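Can't paste images in this forum, so I'm doing it all in text. The chain is below; anyone willing to post the predicted structure tokens underneath?
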Amino acid sequence: MSENVTVDALLPSRLAREAHRMQANRNELVERLARAIDRDGRTEPLKGLRLHRESAPTECMHGISSLAFCVIAQGSKDVFLGDDCYQYDPMHYLLAAAELPVVSQITEASRDQPFLSLCVALDPMLVSSVMVEAGYVASRKQANARAINVSPLDGSLLDTVVRLVRLLDTPAEAPFLMPLITREIIYRLLKGEQGARLRHIAIQESHTHRIAQAIQKLREEFDQPLRIDDIAQELGMSVSSFHHHFKAVTALSPLQFQKQVRLQEARRLMLGEGLDATSAGYRVGYNDASHFNREYKRLFGLPPLRDVERLREAAAATAG
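Text version of the structure:
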């Protein structure tokens, strides 16, 4: 009885020490990221490690997610996939398991306390390797896992992230130590509540893997007519099964997915290559300019030319 009381009495102090250690790690992460990226924008100081800083909340930004583990050191962010919204902050991490058109918005940031985040790129082959070494066996009968989700960031995972960011001060050690730390991150993710999502990445015959193949094909051939029957047949799936599993993973229908990829590419062509709206629409697969303009406005909120002008003015103001 007295032994139990002693153990129970120790629990609060252990919890307090753990809370203190996590807060110290969070503070260190903020300090190191603020030093590593001292102005707004994005950078990749080490291959596979991307940093982001913003000094004010942002408008909704359209982009393509990638297979990555993302942590916020300071601030908060919303990520929208279809009709679903994923909110995360320094207490949570986001795991993205496929290349998907997403909308993101930084909701908490200021000049004194800027938004600071990092993303670690994950290689499916490396995930598979860690699974094998750790003895994880994934059933091919698992249900689909949504391609993006958010979970609490525990102390062990946070500690691993801090050790990774410390490599920014010792770049000569990074080529050797970063792969080891990345493997540890994957191992801890596999042990956590999003382990099933990561395990899906490594299952070659799973529905999720086949949908990933379809996503890759749609991204590469976004300007071509969408032939659902042909894609489903290539994947060994019925059309109805393909539709069901595609939406289960991406939260979008194949047509919605293709449309968003097309429109984001058209926006890039107008901004980066100076194409007019008609030419950009034609390049991404739209033969009807009015149809392109309508769908562009529906996604981005403004007609193509006005949207591009607004983005250029915002970029010029930021640069000034």
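The chain has a mean pLDDT of 86. Strands lie at 41-46, 49-54, 61-64, 68-74, 76-81, 84-88, 92-96, 101-108, 115-121, 148-152.
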